[in-house]
Amino acid sequence: MANRMILNETAWFGRGAVDALTDEVTRRGYHKALIVTDKTLVQCGVVD
Question: Is the pLDDT of residue 5 over 80?
């Protein structure tokens, strides 16, 4: 069985990534974004 994976052209990560992502989403005219994280990052307070 063949699997297909399509990756986005821009990936943001690291401190301040969410702030940079906001500008990128607006610049591209998007209205929504998918942000993927895990429970450890939530527990550490990196994301809320």
Answer: no
